[in-house]
Write a structure and sequence with these properties.
The chain is α+β, with helices and mostly antiparallel strands. The chain has three helices and nine strands, in the order αβββαβββαβββ. The longest helix has 24 residues.
Length: about 160
């Protein structure tokens, strides 16, 4: 092989890597994090759930909806197998209920555009979280964020602490 052959292989590999790098950087990525939060509302400190929707990518992310996802009913092996056969996908959240924040009279600020390296904060008071868990099977919640192209991003499951008696 000649030197020009090596240079051609190097150029092809380098251009492929640059293409892959640009394609991954141009796609907006969203991170959703849940935390126990305290905010002052009308001079009174209130505890609750803090939802942080973060955009670590280099392009703007357009968020259209934020929803709670929580376990609502028990699931049997038969339910899981029938889901696998019917939808040909792994049964991750069978028996979980999706409920928009607007069902709880919460303002989520959507639709919102999150600029690169910025975040969007939503505070959910503990009274609303307790109302959510009145129908739930467990005190576990996940938040789903949906962008303008209907791509869903989920937070990690968060075990909300029980109210002290």
């Amino acid at each position: 092989m000649k030197l020009t052959d090596y240079l051609a292989i190097y150029g092809a590999a380098l251009s492929t890597l640059v293409f892959i790098w640009n394609a991954t950087r141009s796609t907006p990525k969203i991170k959703v994090r849940l935390t126990f939060a305290v905010e002052t509302i009308e001079g009174v400190a209130k505890a609750g759930l803090g939802i942080s929707v973060q955009n670590p990518s280099s392009s703007a992310a357009h968020i259209t909806n934020v929803s709670f996802v929580y376990p609502w009913r028990r699931v049997t092996w038969r339910d899981r197998i029938s889901h696998l056969v019917r939808f040909k996908s792994l049964p991750v959240r069978i028996g979980w209920c999706h409920s928009s924040l607007s069902n709880f009279d919460l303002e989520d600020g959507c639709p919102v555009t999150i600029e690169p390296a910025q975040s969007h904060w939503i505070f959910v008071p503990s009274e609303t979280v307790e109302k959510l868990f009145s129908d739930a099977l467990k005190r576990k919640v996940v938040v789903q964020v949906q962008d303008a192209l209907w791509r869903n991003k989920y937070s990690k499951a968060y075990n909300y602490p029980a109210k002290p008696q």
